[in-house]
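**User:** Once you have settled down, spend some time on the protein underneath, comparing sequence with structure tokens, and judge whether sequence predicts the tokens.
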Amino acid sequence: MRYRPMPSTVIRRWDYDEAEQRLDVTFVSGRVYSYHEVPAAVAQAMLEAFSKGSYFNRHIRDHFAFTEHRRRVSP
């Protein structure tokens, strides 16, 4: 599933790779995280949630292992 950017005070955009069960989240701060082993039903529920940030905080953050992606700094 590919999702477009959305109006949110916390999340700038997010994408879900069903084959890898990976949820990639870009926050308005610019930080990017990949959450691993996220079931498709959880991603679908986030899509349907009125508040993506609230759903994320209640059902994803602190529930799934994640990787933070470091931004490259130009020399």
Notes: The beta strands are 11-17, 22-27, 32-36, 66-69. The chain has a mean pLDDT of 88. The longest strand covers residues 11-17. The chain is about 25% helix and 30% strand.
